[in-house]
Automatic annotation (TrEMBL):
PROSITE patterns: ADENYLATE_KINASE. It catalyses: AMP + ATP = 2 ADP. Consists of three domains, a large central CORE domain and two small peripheral domains, NMPbind and LID, which undergo movements during catalysis. The LID domain closes over the site of phosphoryl transfer upon ATP binding. Assembling and dissambling the active center during each catalytic cycle provides an effective means to prevent ATP hydrolysis. Some bacteria have evolved a zinc-coordinating structure that stabilizes the LID domain. Residues 127-162 form the Adenylate kinase active site lid domain. This is Adenylate kinase. It is an enzyme of class 2 (transferase). InterPro entries: Adenyl_kin_sub, Adenylat/UMP-CMP_kin, Adenylat_kinase_CS, Adenylate_kinase_lid-dom, ADK_active_lid_dom_sf, P-loop_NTPase. Residues 126-163 are annotated as: LID. The gene is adk. Pathway: Purine metabolism; AMP biosynthesis via salvage pathway; AMP from ADP: step 1/1. Monomer. Residues 35-64 are annotated as: NMP. SUPFAM superfamilies: Microbial and mitochondrial ADK, insert 'zinc finger' domain, P-loop containing nucleoside triphosphate hydrolases.
Amino acid sequence: MSFTPKRFIFLGPQGSGKGTQAKMLADFLNIAHISTGEIFRAAVDQDTILGKRIAAGLASGKLILDDDTNTLVADRLSAVDVQNGFVLDGYPRTLNQATFLEKTSAPQKTILLELSDAEAIKRLMGRMNCSKCGTVFHEFYKRPKTDEACDSCGGDLVKRRDDTEESIAERLRLYHQETEPIIAFYENSGRLVRVDGRPGIAEVHVAVKRALNL
Ligand SMILES: [Zn+2]
């Protein structure tokens, strides 16, 4: 019997818990969790010509070029720890990237974590970070024991400056615009599964496994 690597993609708006779920699925299957955030940071650390271009792109807040992203992702997917499979999070972000991935390491399933804009805004607006250790809290979902102080180190809790309702709505608008074609792409080839992103982390994890018949 031949061995088939397990390849999955997570799509979902900010606030859907996509990164957390991608990591949990990867841990469960003992395969690599790969996020473009990490790939970009690693490229910037290497300080190559490509790394400098990524750094400039990240600093300007613009999207990284498809060709650069594809190059970095292809490189990452050729690493030894990826031979049993991967869970990708943050990629593909454009149809061009999805087509590229199809030729190199086509995913078996794409999991779309569904969350309404209203719910995503509510989740994102409530986020607070410890200014000392970075621990994330939330005014509805993960309240600190004492208001405005970190449970682990007592540091001040601050809201991210770009977590205003306006900027979140703009990020969601962009998300829909760039993701709709990718959703259609995987749906048309029968590889899209939709999972309700509203329940708690553990429940969503169970639902993801069920949707993938794991
Ligand atoms: Zn802290």
